[in-house]
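worker-3 :: picked Aspartyl/glutamyl-tRNA(Asn/Gln) amidotransferase subunit B
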Amino acid sequence: MSTYRIQGATGDWEVVIGLEVHAQVTSNSKLFSGSATAFGAEPNSQVSLIDAAMPGMLPVLNGECIRQAVRTGMAIDAQINKWSRFDRKNYFYADLPQGYQISQLYHPIVGEGSLTIEADEKAGIPEAKVIGVERIHVEQDAGKLMHDQHPTMSYVDLNRSGVALMEIVSRPDMNSPAEAGAYLSKLRTILRYVGSCDGNMDQGSMRADVNVSVRRPGDELGTRTETKNVNSVRFVMQAIEHEANRQVDVIEGGGKIVQETRLFDPNTGSTRSMRSKEDAHDYRYFPDPDLLPLVLEDAFLENCRASLPELPDAKRARYEGELGLSAYNAAVLTADVDTFRWFEALLAETALAQGKQPAEVAKQAANWLISELFGALNKLGKSLDESPVSHEQAAELLALVGKGTISGSIAKQVLEIMLETGEGATAIVEREGLKQESDTGAIEAKVDEILAANSDKVEQYRGGKVALFGFFVGQTMKAMQGKANPGVINEILKSKLG
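worker-3 :: tokens ->
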């Protein structure tokens, strides 16, 4: 149960949130035409006669878009409707050349499903929570109006016109910005695992309409507003925070919340009114006469299910169970498709380099990736896919540590050089003379020197001050310029200190 509340002048208020996420389907062509869908193309360079609504043009359904929508539904354990239908949603807008949008109001392809957001005390999510998904329907996108190209006119770019979208509609099951952020992040992760959407919110291929209302805890639902086309997790959370507080101020000031569509301004973190919110009957929906109902066969559904990858929750459980990773590390490594792919490549290379099973080196690989490489890349302002160090080079470095050739502290120095030069770890270690000293005779001689120079501390240690053991280890490492094998140092010190 969320404990998030808006502290109003007259008492506490609860926030109720639902998200309608528009996810662009991964496909080489549009929903009803063969036009390309590449991001960043010249305006109006990816427009067919169908997209431009030329007279006599008839839509032809793209089967790949349907397959991806079905796979997405299966990934959230949703009901897949074998029979669905396309409807026309009628409204006039300059970037909608048909004068209607082809969507699915009454009979969507995917019915009810759910996904679980994980507990996160720091974020204000005290326990795991199941968020219901009401439906997923397939529809075509509109074009885009550009208002900054001319002082008195708006230009129309129809490149997006007809692009296939999945509209994923949640239940109003979220009660805090943190829960909404966690839901959107988890949904994006699932879409990217499945491959049905690239999740690039900054490019507009995934965006959210944010429905927010407030009420006294336990009361009936209040009037909601819808903030359109919010394109980042952080902005969704900001929009909820602002809109919820705005609604509380309006109600406590004696006003009423109007059902309306609003826009989010990322520069100010605030929302503003755009237009009154229409209801379904305002769009005069009716079955599209140019498209037959969609009927899915069992063999098609079986192929869709067989094509699904291991999904985030299952992968996280396997990392904890089979690989013995901590819950935190498993969650970090499965939170993004690029991260888990990099980790699994690193794991395979590390096991091969050390002649061990993946489970034997999993903790070493996971700890190094999360603690060392992530930290180093963050300082450089680079993402994992921009890493100057490949997973093959990383495995080579970890093998040097695993075999005792270099110590963990020396490995940090080597990584810094690798990031700067792109060289392999072995070449760096050889050139810089960084090999770890494991000669017991040389180490023993240094230990004897350290103990002789610190006889008072030796007596204190033998008198019960066992914490001084670390002092002796540190002094020996310092004397050997960090190149001594810590395991050998420990064994020698234990035998000499008694």
